[in-house]
């Protein structure tokens, strides 16, 4: 029996789930092992990180799932979280169904779910992992985030100029775009962070179920999700232009406002990622510089 399956069975037994059946499911993302354990109606899904060095997200996922269900977004119930042999894990209900087929209808549903999730605001129990390094108040954190980036974009000795991340003219463009965002009336809430048809499970007996809260965070939620959708499109080719229109319609968002704000938001986020990599993850510096260069090329 493969080690991931053995571990998942031990986790399941710890929480009272017995049965000989245990099967690892592949193709559901690269971050976690996903193992179905148990028999018939008692089957559960055990998830745990492939890389033990990464921060645990299962407590955050449980909080997001509970709050999203309350907001009217169908999602798999998180039955338990914990640590075994130094490995963090989550146990959730197994929802019978199949991943949604890509197309405007599925993306409109994702947009509607996103709008409901974006209205979720933090409470005192919200895990710290859902917040940025700038604090637990999403609005204040965003303005601090913006001020940090504007300050770095005025450095006399700018290391990103020496690295070739941008030219002097491009830095001025990013700075002007960032400054304009100070006057944008963002709505702050919870972003799912990984909206895609692979995380939308179609059932025969109810509305589609949204899965996988491991990338969720608080902030200018619509724009965080739109950037995540751009990354999804770069990887899978979806959402297409038609599917993106369906998502925006489902979210009841204003496309003309998005067209104005998103390019500036993208530049600030890409710039911030380079600064973060420079300070905390130098192994990701080249990757983040490439992302910033790609964002500048879109202007």
Commentary on this structure:
The protein is of the alpha+beta class and 299 residues long. The protein folds into 2 domains: 3-94, Phosphorylase Kinase, domain 1 (2-Layer Sandwich), CATH 3.30.200; 99-297, Aminoglycoside 3'-phosphotransferase, Chain: A, domain 2 (Alpha-Beta Complex), CATH 3.90.1200.10. 46% of the residues lie in helices and 15% in strands. The protein has 10 helices and 10 strands. The chain has helices spanning 3-14, 58-70, 104-118, 138-152, 159-163, 168-180, 221-236, 241-250, 255-280, 285-297, and strands at 22-24, 32-37, 44-49, 78-84, 87-93, 98-99, 188-191, 200-202, 209-210, 217-220. Strands 1-2-3-5-4 form a 5-stranded antiparallel β-sheet, sandwiched between helices. The protein is globular, with a radius of gyration of 20 Å. The relative contact order is 0.13. Residues 29-223 form the Aminoglycoside phosphotransferase domain. One of its GO terms (molecular function) is kinase activity. This is Ser/Thr protein kinase RdoA (MazF antagonist). Keywords: Kinase, Transferase. It comes from Salana multivorans.
Key traits:
299 residues, Phosphorylase Kinase, domain 1, Aminoglycoside 3'-phosphotransferase, Chain: A, domain 2, 2 domains, five-stranded antiparallel beta sheet, 10 helices, 15% strand
